[in-house]
Structure formats: structure tokens, C-alpha cells
Amino acid sequence: MKHSLAALVMVGVLSACATTTSSTGRTQYVGAVSEQQLHQLGAQAFTEARQKGPLSTDARQNAYVRCVVDALVRQLPAAQRQLAWETAVFAQDEPNAFALPGGKVGINSGLFKVARSQDQLAAVVAHEIGHVVERHHDERITRQMGAAGVVQLLGALAGDYGQLATQGGGLLAQTGFLLPGSRAQESEADVVGQRLMAQAGFDPRAAVGLWENMIAAGGSRPPQWLSTHPDPQSRIAELRARAEQLVPTWQQARAAGRRPACG
């Protein structure tokens, strides 16, 4: 019976998968789970992350992050704007951040040491939101988890989450939601995120300084967050070239009244 059920789910998963194209023109294979299920997975993973904590109780930090996220979200497509976006600041020293399907954003307090302005923080957050907008989590599940993994995930959504967490270290471990993306995904998130921050009124040139700070913070060994990129210096060169192209977009946003004042 179990094998028959697994086979039926596998057939359903495979038939639901589809090839699509991202906003940058990259071909993607997605659809192993529905958008609703993906949002549920994101919400559960976010809940798990908050439970693990520790969470920052600094009201100014939390308001600062919320302000930046809100400014960026206002420039997203309508379907993404309508989500109930949530933010959390974690009291952890590692400079890191993540965004999850369903409108969830987490920031480590250690990030404030390298993101030294609202524009630099926006560069990080916009990059992470870019992963969500471009369906990278969906793509990752579809390509890497396989049918057996999807069966587990669907089981978690059906009410077996507690058992899944006990057996596999939690939904974050099962989905790989917080693991670095592929090089193609990371590069795409750079493109989409830098464009988004400019549209929201944040200076796209700040992305260059942010990544320079991130590399410097890692000394001779770049932070793990950057490990999926073949050459950090090439990445910075691309960010710098793209920033100059996006300056008119940023200026238009400012002229239209989009002038974030988050801190």
C-alpha cells in the first residue's frame, strides 16, 4: 500500500512539473509542489528558525529591517505584494540573511557590521527576495529533492511535521531552504535584487560596497554565503557595471517620491 501511494504521488509530482523562464531569461524546471504548498513550507521553515533563535529584542533593529523590507516589497509584482510579509532579526554574529516563499525574511544581527547603511542592507535583502521572486526554492525542490523527498514534504504538510523534524533535523534540513543556491541562482538574485533596490529608491551602487565589506569580513577566506560564486572579484565587477546602468532607475524612483528613510 505504501509503495502504491508513493508511486501515485510520484506520478502526480512528475506530471505537475513544468519548464518555465525566469525574468532574466534562464530556463527553470519547477512545479514539484504547488505555490500554496511552497508558501506553507516557507512558513513552517520560518517558524522553525524562530523557535531555534535566538531572536533579537532590539526594537530599533527590528523596525529598521521592517522598513527596508516594506520599501522593497512595494515594488514587487502584485501577487507578491499581497502576501503577509514577516521579518525577524536573529541575535547571531554571522553576517547572513534569508528570504522564504510566503513572504518571510530573516536577518542576523551580525549583518549590521557589514551592511553599514540602509542602502547596503537593502542590497542584501533585495538579493534574498530575488531568490523568492524567481522561484529558486521551487526550482531547488523540483530538481534536487526527487519524488521521495517530495513525498516527505507533502507528508509534513499533511500533519506529520513533528515526525519529520525529529527524523531529519527539521524542515530546513529537509528542504535545504537556507542553503546557498547554485551559481546561476545566486547570479540571478544579484541581477534581480540590484534592480529591485533601485526601483525602491535605494542606491544600487551600495551593493558594491556591501559585497566588498562581506569579503573583507571573511579575511583570506570569504564568508560561506559567498562560496557558490567562482570569483568574488568578478561578481563585484558585475555589480559595479550594473549599478551604473541602474542609476537612472534609482533617480527616477527618487523623483517619484520613493525615498526610503529607514536609518
Account of the 3D structure:
The chain is mainly alpha-helical and 263 residues long. It has one domain (34-255). It has 10 helices and 5 strands, in the order H-E-E-H-H-H-E-E-E-H-H-H-H-H-H. A 3-stranded mixed sheet has the order 3-5-4. Strand 1 and strand 2 form a beta hairpin. The longest helix has 33 residues, at 136-168. The protein is globular and about 40 Å long.
Descriptive keywords:
protease, disordered N terminus, mainly alpha, 263 residues, signal, metal-binding, three-stranded mixed β-sheet, metalloprotease, 10 helices
Quick rundown:
The protein is built from 10 helices and 5 strands. With 263 residues, the chain is mainly alpha-helical. A 3-stranded mixed beta sheet has the order 3-5-4. It has a two-stranded antiparallel ribbon with strand order 1-2.
Helix content: 55-70%
Count of helical regions: 10
Strand content: 5-15%
Query: What kind of sheet is the major sheet?
Result: 3 strands, mixed
| Rg result | 19 Å
Low-confidence stretches: 1-15, 156-169
Give the termini separation: 58 Å
The beta-strand count equals: 5
Structural class: mainly alpha
Anisotropy-based shape: globular
Order of helices and strands: HEEHHHEEEHHHHHH
Q: State the domain count.
A: 1
- The mean pLDDT is 81
Order the strands across the largest sheet as they lie in space: 3-5-4
